[in-house]
User: Which sequence fits this backbone?
């Protein structure tokens, strides 16, 4: 399976124009470049920052390298189509993305409260993009320039490519392709698809005839001739041990099988042409009404996510078929190097003047060295979006980018803020055998333990770190991306290098929990692995003569988490001297496996059946507040809630003023004045805060 190199296409005629200093955001900039029109216009929910950490910059510069004239409409006023006309009618298509973040996650907290700021907007101003931005922008593009194809992509479209549970509306919604009325949806890392699509459209091929691109979703009226359809129930039955003749109880929303020009199989033959086989998922109306079928469809989708063996998927939406082609083939190191070495200015567009864009400030001196994640954490969207196969940049390309930052980026002081990506330490980690990798259907390469076929040697990364910090003009190279400590402990020399040279006093890692139940539903390693890493961290910090601290992150209210689990976590935190400043409550993101647990009450990590394993989720706001309160057991505002919960749980023995108690009996004046239900409470003092044994002013974080 060797795809065409994305830089091997014959460039479009407009390559005669020199690369733009910045991709134009106005007609005036287009005129300065000598353009009479744009071939492609990218509409994005983020401010335009010409940096390879921003999706619109990567896609725009990549298409420019193919010879196309690309314009940017950043954060348009969506209340009318006027802003969508300002660059004129694109010759080929509109490319629509909500931005680097899902617009709903960007705007709302896990408690569905509106955020006051937006890190991807000048001066962090909130409210500059609509809810479900992909849908709104697509419809405005259709209004502004009728007949121009609309292509949607990015994280928001990618995670909504099939029928999905929407946490903010508490219901199952259509695929974003259906609701947006776009012409095609590109999911995952879409460089291969977007380059091929642009060239085929430029060659005059109608967009509705471009149906074979990997990493795309399209709508069809029927299944084409020559395809074999396998019901998802044949892959794994979702029903009883003896299923009914039809794999799904309700087929009222589907046309009669006899009207389809295909053969539907209920008993899979031993050999099929996978390239001409499509799996039929339960239809939209079915997963909307039946949470068990929703969990079943989610499991099948994730099982069919390996580019080496994934089959096409189809899901009925009303009278049309939503068709998902197999995932894209990962980029080679040579291709990825060229993508990240395109002529980015590495700063925001001059139109923003001196405005501060917080997301840019965070990454301006950071470098992406890889893509993808084979961890498969059920609550995380990285694996679902970027895939499980790690795409690596070459060492030489990474070092060249460090030198580019050193020599060209304003304000550089010699400190690289991060050398990482979706994870800090998966660079160059891979399966020992490409054939095994291509055939694998595991949901994670590191859970319940590290796969015996996974190469975990991180010495190449150690050598990269050493070369990076030895470059002239480089004072420090920090590692700020999320660290997989279960992989790190496999190479002690990596931990030593990291701790000795690349930690700025604090290292944030994410055990997420300590109890086996929640960890199993997250697909995270046990707390014993954290203890191993902690011992290494402290040993090497001491050897380096440095006072450094581990900062563990934990999730509250994740599916599979009980009140007792959170109580035991709170006691662990107190025993270890941790006092969390901020806590994260679980947010059910579209398409995640944990979201399927949240919505269906079933566990899609195993075969989903009517009588299968059930998963409890802390759904009510009162219980979610309680779980967050356990993480902040030291905050007096939470003490009334915790006291009530401990009494209800039969653990009133943990209320008191000794060092072994979780919360004291006394309440500081002016704190905890409302209970969880909102009723006012009277503040009383059973002990003086100056006399009780455990009531002194909260100290800072204990040194680890």
Assistant:
């Amino acid at each position: 399976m060797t795809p065409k190199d994305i830089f091997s296409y014959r460039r479009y005629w407009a390559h005669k124009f020199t690369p733009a200093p910045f991709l134009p955001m106005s007609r005036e900039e287009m005129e300065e470049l000598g353009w009479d029109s744009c071939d492609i216009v990218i509409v994005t929910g983020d401010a335009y920052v010409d940096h390879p950490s921003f999706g619109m910059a990567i896609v725009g510069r990549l298409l420019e390298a193919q010879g196309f004239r690309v314009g940017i409409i950043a954060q348009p006023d969506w209340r009318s189509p006027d802003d969508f006309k300002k660059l004129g009618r694109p010759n080929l298509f509109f490319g629509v993305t909500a931005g680097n973040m899902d617009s709903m996650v960007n705007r709302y907290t896990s408690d569905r409260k509106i955020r006051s700021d937006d890190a991807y907007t000048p001066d962090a101003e909130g409210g500059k993009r609509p809810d479900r931005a992909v849908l709104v922008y697509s419809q405005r593009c259709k209004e502004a320039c009728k007949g121009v194809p609309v292509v949607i992509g990015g994280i928001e479209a990618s995670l909504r490519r099939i029928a999905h549970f929407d946490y903010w509306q508490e219901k199952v919604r259509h695929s974003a392709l259906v609701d947006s009325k776009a012409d095609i949806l590109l999911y995952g890392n879409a460089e291969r698809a977007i380059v091929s699509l642009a060239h085929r459209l430029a060659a005059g091929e109608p967009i509705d005839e471009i149906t074979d691109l990997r990493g795309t979703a399209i709508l069809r009226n029927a299944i084409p001739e020559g395809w074999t359809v396998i019901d998802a129930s044949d892959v794994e039955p979702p029903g009883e041990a003896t299923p009914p003749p039809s794999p799904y109880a309700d087929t009222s929303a589907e046309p009669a099988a006899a009207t389809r020009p295909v053969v539907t199989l209920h008993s899979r033959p031993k050999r099929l042409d996978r390239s001409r086989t499509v799996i039929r998922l339960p239809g939209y109306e079915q997963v909307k009404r039946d949470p068990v079928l929703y969990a079943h469809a989610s499991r099948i989708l994730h099982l069919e996510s390996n580019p080496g063996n994934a089959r096409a998927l189809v899901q009925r939406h009303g009278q049309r078929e939503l068709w998902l082609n197999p995932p894209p083939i990962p980029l080679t190191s040579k291709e990825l190097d060229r993508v990240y070495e395109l002529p980015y200015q590495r700063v925001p567009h001059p139109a923003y003047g001196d405005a501060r864009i917080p997301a840019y400030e965070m990454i301006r001196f950071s470098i992406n060295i890889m893509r993808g994640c084979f961890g498969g954490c059920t609550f995380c969207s990285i694996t679902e979006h970027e895939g499980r196969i790690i795409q690596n940049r070459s060492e030489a390309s990474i070092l060249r980018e460090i030198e580019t930052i050193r020599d060209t980026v304003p304000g550089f002081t010699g400190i690289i803020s991060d050398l990482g990506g979706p994870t800090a330490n998966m660079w160059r980690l891979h399966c020992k055998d490409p054939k095994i990798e291509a055939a694998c259907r595991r949901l994670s390469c590191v859970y319940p333990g590290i796969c015996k076929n996974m190469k975990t040697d991180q010495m190449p990364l150690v050598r990269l770190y050493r070369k990076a910090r030895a470059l002239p003009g480089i004072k420090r190279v920090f590692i700020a991306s999320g660290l997989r400590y279960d992989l790190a402990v496999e190479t002690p020399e990596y931990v030593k290098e990291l701790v000795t040279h690349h930690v700025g006093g604090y290292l944030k890692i994410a055990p997420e929990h300590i109890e086996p139940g929640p960890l199993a539903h997250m697909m995270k390693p046990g707390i014993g692995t954290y203890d191993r890493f902690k011992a290494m961290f402290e040993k090497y910090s001491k050897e380096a003569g440095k006072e450094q601290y581990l900062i563990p992150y934990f999730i509250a209210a994740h599916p599979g988490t009980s009140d007792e689990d959170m109580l035991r976590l709170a006691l662990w935190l107190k025993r270890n001297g941790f006092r969390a400043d901020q806590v994260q409550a679980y947010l059910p993101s579209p398409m995640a496996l944990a979201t399927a647990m949240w919505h269906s009450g079933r566990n899609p990590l195993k075969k989903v059946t009517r009588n299968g394993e059930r998963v409890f989720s802390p759904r009510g706001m009162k219980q979610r507040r309680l779980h967050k309160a356990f993480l902040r057991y030291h905050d007096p505002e939470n003490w009334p809630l915790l006291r009530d919960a401990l009494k209800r749980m039969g653990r009133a023995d943990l209320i008191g003023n000794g060092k072994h108690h979780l919360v004291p009996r006394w309440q500081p004046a002016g704190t905890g004045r409302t209970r969880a239900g909102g009723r006012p409470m009277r503040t009383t003092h059973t002990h003086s805060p100056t006399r009780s044994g455990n009531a002194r002013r909260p100290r800072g974080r204990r040194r680890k």
